[in-house]
């Protein structure tokens, strides 16, 4: 786990086999990773309010850029979710098949 820069309020990692969680740059309020076999979660730049990752076999979640309010992944086998650029309000991936709300 790597946390850099300032104003990181909460980072929680639970479960087993979490390889890497990286939070960088200012104003990341909450990052939660739970379940097993989470390979990589990266939150960079500023104003990422909430990133929860739960369930099994999440390979990579990346939130890059500013004003990403919510990224939620649940249920097993999400290979890659990337959110970049300004003003992304919510990305939710749930179930064995992908369901994405923007």
Query: What is the end-to-end distance?
Result: 28 Å
Alpha-beta content class: mainly beta
What would the principal axes of the Cα set say about the shape? Answer: globular
Model regions low in confidence, pLDDT < 50 over at least 5 residues: 1-10, 65-70, 74-80, 84-102
Q: In angstroms, what is the radius of gyration?
A: 12 Å
Number of domains: 1
Number of beta strands: 10
| Percent range of helical residues | under 10%
| Number of helical elements | 0
Let me know the average pLDDT.
49
Compressed to H and E, one letter per element, the order equals: EEEEEEEEEE
Sequence of strands across the biggest β-sheet: 1-3-5-7-9
Beta-strand fraction estimate: over 45%
Q: Biggest sheet, in brief? A: 5 strands, parallel
Please render the helix and strand layout as text:
Layout: E1 2-3, E2 11-13, E3 18-23, E4 31-33, E5 38-43, E6 48-53, E7 58-64, E8 68-73, E9 78-84, E10 88-93
Parallel strand pairs: 1-3, 2-4, 3-5, 4-6, 5-7, 6-8, 7-9, 8-10
What does this protein structure show overall?
The chain has strands at 2-3, 11-13, 18-23, 31-33, 38-43, 48-53, 58-64, 68-73, 78-84, 88-93. The model is unreliable at 1-10, 65-70, 74-80 and 84-102 (pLDDT under 50). It has one domain. The strands form two sheets. The protein has a five-stranded parallel beta sheet, with no helix packed on it. It has a five-stranded parallel beta sheet with strand order 2-4-6-8-10, with no helix packed on it. The chain contains no helices and ten strands. Helices cover 0% and strands 51% of the residues. With 102 residues, the protein is mainly β.
């Amino acid at each position: 786990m790597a946390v850099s820069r300032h104003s990181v309020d909460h980072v929680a990692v639970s479960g087993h086999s979490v390889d890497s969680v990286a939070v960088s740059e200012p104003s990341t309020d909450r990052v939660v990773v739970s379940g097993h076999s989470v390979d990589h979660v990266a939150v960079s730049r500023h104003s990422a309010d909430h990133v929860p990752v739960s369930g099994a076999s999440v390979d990579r979640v990346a939130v890059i850029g500013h004003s990403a309010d919510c990224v939620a992944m649940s249920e097993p086998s999400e290979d890659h979710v990337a959110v970049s650029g300004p003003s992304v309000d919510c990305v939710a991936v749930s179930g064995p098949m992908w369901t994405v709300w923007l």
